[in-house]
Amino acid sequence: MYSAAQTDNTVSIQNLSFSRGDRKIFDDISMQFARGKITAIMGPSGTGKTTLLKLIGGQLCPEQGCIVVDGENVHQLRLADLYDLRKRMGMLFQSGALLTDMSVYDNVAFPLREHTRLTESLIRTLVLMKLQSVGLRGARDLMPNELSGGMARRVALARAIALDPMMIMYDEPFTGQDPISLGVLVKLIKTLNSTLHLTSIVVSHDVQETAAIADYIYLISDGKVVGQGTPEQISRSESGWVRQFMRGDADGPVRFHYTDDDYLEDLFHTEEQ
Amino acid sequence: MLYVLQQLGYVTRQRLTKLGRGTFFLLHVLTGISDILRRPELLIRQLYSVGVLTFLIITVSGLFVGMVLGLQGYYVLSDFGAEETLGVMVATSLVRELGPVVSALLFAGRADSALTAEIGLMKATEQLSGMEMMAVDPVKRIIAPRFFAGFFSMPLLAALFSMIGVLGGQMVGVGLLGVDDGAFWSQMQAKLDFSDDILNGIIKSTVFGFVASWIALFEGYDAVPTSEGVSRATTRTVVNSAFATLGLDFILTALMFGDD
Ligand SMILES: Nc1ncnc2c1ncn2[C@@H]1O[C@H](COP(=O)(O)OP(=O)(O)OP(=O)(O)O)[C@@H](O)[C@H]1O
Ligand SMILES: [Mg+2]
Q: Could you tell me which of B22, B65, B89, B145 has the fewest CB atoms within 10 Å of its CB?
């Protein structure tokens, strides 16, 4: 079913549709994520970027279309096979999703202890290496509730790379980082990608940082792909939508509001009641 | 009228789907036993927090319930000059009914509500989905150990409750009201039957432990992932496991002690 040209994609999404209640989040979209490359997904808040990552991870089921990860159709796998596939995927949650009853150290060690039979001393070495790479080796004895939002996200990143997965999905890794840790994270994502040949999917609002490291960018809005291409192509795009989003102008075709029923009419409605 | 029927149908359907989900959930939890056999330390940790930490409330309540039984029993029995049988009365009511039922109710308040809140909060803070994405099945890793901990500790706690209760009854009856110590124990020994009383009590509390842990964990797992959702789920756990305990107690009592 899949032609040879598609096999160099780690993730391939075909004609995907998905709704939450009556709201159509995705309407027949197709995307490809090339192996060993960094692909960015951008779009206004609430368009469904997190939802897309959860669909790829098999936590939500699409209404139509299919998602193929590493040659396997995610939503037709048996549960055991899905868990096997997930061992090869890392995911950085937008909220961090650290286990709150374990220390930072145990959080990063968690996937290693669950899935490998490494000795504790080897695990210690690995955990300290991962924590060092996100600059938090000194914070290993803290509990998650003692971390700041930015720190928690970096711990979550260390945990996501603990098993050396073949692909990582980063859900807004740069939010809440100071300029220095932001620079470190950008470099880390780039390094991980080039040294380990990871396939990276980065969801982010930070246009500059993302454009600097991404090999390919998808812009999504209202359930559709509204722009795609390499960062150069995107920056040279003729589309008014793409230009507005990348420059952050307030006026233009991008909707800032959740729904577009008339503002004045909505105000009048309350008076009627 | 039509509206009422509509609502009735809607609610019934919702309850039934929830029951269905709950059943699948239970089956999933039960498959977790293989993981627990491989890693018993997970179960032991939960036995501590579910079982051991409930010890105190069970002990204290058992003591007082037993003491009250001793008092009340003495007043009634002494009217008939039968205060020698106080031991039988205290022990039978504890082992057959009060031990399993009261400790299950206390357990629902102390341990089950905590389980629901814990699981619900883990869901609300995405810890459960985070675990799924790390290829760790939260139902097996987090929920199954808690389920079996509740299941195993309930009969033990009920037994503890009955034992302390009997001691409480003896303290009041013999120590305070002057019932003969030898008669208290020997009557009890003669009248209490192992399979009729003790075994049935154990069966009851095992059933209660099973159902209460199931309710608590499913309510947490199925909670709406918000603070309000979790608080509602916690309330539902306490209410539902109390109802389930009392309802099942009636059924089990009818089945066990019906025909003799
Ligand atoms: N559990 C849910 N139930 C119902 N609707 C939801 C749920 N989660 C998300 N949504 C809706 O799905 C849409 C997409 O949500 P999603 O979290 O994927 O957005 P996002 O693109 O990641 O936004 P952000 O950039 O702010 O993180 C939103 O409009 C939201 O209202
Ligand atoms: Mg998001």
A: B22
Q: What is the rounded distance in angstroms from the CA atom of residue A127 to the CA atom of residue A108?
A: 6
C-alpha closest to that of B119 among B209, B31, B224: B224
**CA angle, A233 as apex, A38 and A47 as ends, to 5°?**
65
ipTM for the predicted complex: 0.81
Degrees to nearest 5, angle at CA A215 with A50 and A231: 90
8 A C-beta contact, residue B103 and residue B157 = yes
For chain B, the domain total comes to: 1
Confidence (pTM): 0.85
CB contact A113 to B (< 8 Å)? no
Q: Are A36 and A197 in contact (CB under 8 A)?
A: yes
Report how far residue B95's alpha carbon sits from residue B161's, in angstroms, rounded to the nearest whole number. Answer: 9
B125 contacts in A (CB within 8 Å)? Answer: 95, 97, 100
Nearest ligand (C-alpha, residue A42): 1
Both tokens of A234, joined, read 């995107």
**B24 within a domain of the structure (yes/no):** no
Within a domain: B35? yes
Residue nearest to atom 29 of ligand 1 (CA): A46
Helix (H, G, I), strand (E, B) or coil at A118: coil
Which range among B5-14, B189-198, B237-246 shows the weakest confidence by mean pLDDT? Answer: B189-198
Print the domain residue range for B203.
Answer: 31-257
Return the closest-CA partner of residue A140 out of A154, A121, A150, A119: A154
A261 has pLDDT over 90: no
Q: For the residues of A158-179, what is the DSSP string, one character each?
A: HHHTTT--SEEEEESTTTT--H
Asked, for residue B26, whether it belongs to a domain, the answer is: no
Evaluated on CA atoms B20, B23, B25, B27, the torsion sign reads negative
A117-134 average pLDDT score: 91
